[in-house]
Every structure is written in C-alpha cells, then in structure tokens.
Amino acid sequence: MNNHDLSRMGGFSLLEALIAVVILSFGLLGALRQQAVSLKFTRDARLQSVAVGFGRELGEMMRTNARIAAQTRNPYLGAFADGSLTPERASGCLDSGQSCAAPADVASAQMTDWLARVDDALPGARVTVCADSSPYDEQGLPVWDCAGAPAASPSAAYIKIGWTRQDTRGSIVAASDAAARPFVVFPVALDP
Asked: How far apart are CA 79 and CA 122, in angstroms?
C-alpha cells in the first residue's frame, strides 16, 4: 500500500470532530431553551388555573350569601393589592369555637380567609371585586377600574384577579403596575 491510499482511509480529522461538537452544542442549547420556555408556560397555566378556582369559589360564596352580596356596600366588594389583601373589616367568626352573629359577619370572615389564601397562592396578587358596567376597554381587554357601578343594588359583580408574572419579552410585570391588567375576570350573577 502506498501513502496515498492510507490518507483516504483515515478517520475523521480533529477539525471535523470539533465542528460536530459545536453543532451538537447548539442543538442542546436550543433544547434547553425550549425546556425553560415550557416550564414558564406551565407555571403560568398553573397560576391561571389556581386563580380561576379562587374566582369560582368566591363567586359561589357570594351567590350563597346573595342578600349581602347584592348590597351596594358589602364585605365582598373592594380593591385589594399585594401586601394589603385584607378586607376592610377582617373577621374570624368562622373559626373553630366561634360563631357569626349576622350574614355580613359571615361575608367578612369568608373574605378574610379567601384573601389570605389568594395571597399565599398567587405571587404579588391583586384582587378587585365590584359591580361594573364596563369590565373591558374598547379593545376588549380587562381593566382594573370599576366604572359605572349602579346606585341601586347590583345584579352582577365582577371578580378581577391578577398576579406578578413575566411578560412575553421576559420583563417582570407586577399586578400593581399601571400597565398591568387582570388575568382572570369572573362575572357573578346575584339574585337576592
């Protein structure tokens, strides 16, 4: 055999192996990036599901105590932000060994417990519960403000829930930011 035939029979060169490792590395980095994005979306979906569950729960509490919930000033209504997720009049009358004197006391105790659990489950939670004639803006996006609440007893209320999360550009947006919007808007029909 001559030297010319041996050079054709040789294996991969070091340069070819290095190029293959670089290409493989880019592929693995892409897979890791997809995994990180997948984890973020899974977390967002879990928090969305938790918030919907809280909205349903509060809606059921309000419907169960509809006579109180249909009043213009009641313990269920209010705007609650991160750090102050407590009702105007906190109550623990539903705790073991205690009793509630009136339906309004039951509503206060329900809101005290419910807001504490929302605060624990949703990072930087913000909640607004109000009678609202326009819970969405002109573009159909939810808004925190409650506009045009009726003077008489409301026939419907809106539960608006938001939390601190990362937007599509990777920026952290707190629910208390001026540009933030509620992520869950839950209507509650009240028939006293």
From this structure: 16
Angle between helices 14-64 and 103-121 (to 10 degrees): 180
pTM exceeds 0.90, yes or no: no
In 47-70, which positions are buried (b, 16+ CB within 10 angstroms) versus exposed (e)? Answer: bbebbeebbebbbebbeebeebbb
CA 10 remoteness from chain centre: 61
The predicted-structure confidence for 98-139, as pLDDT tens digits, reads as follows 777 888 888 888 999 999 999 999 999 999 998 888 888 899
Domain coordinates of the chain in residue numbers? 12-189
Cβ distance 175 to 144 under 8 Å? no
CA distance 109 to 65: 12
CA angle at residue 81 from 77 to 83, to 5 degrees? 125
Q: What is the DSSP string of 59-114?
A: HHHHHHTHHHHTSSS-TT-EEE-TT----SS---TTSTT---SSHHHHHHHHHHHH
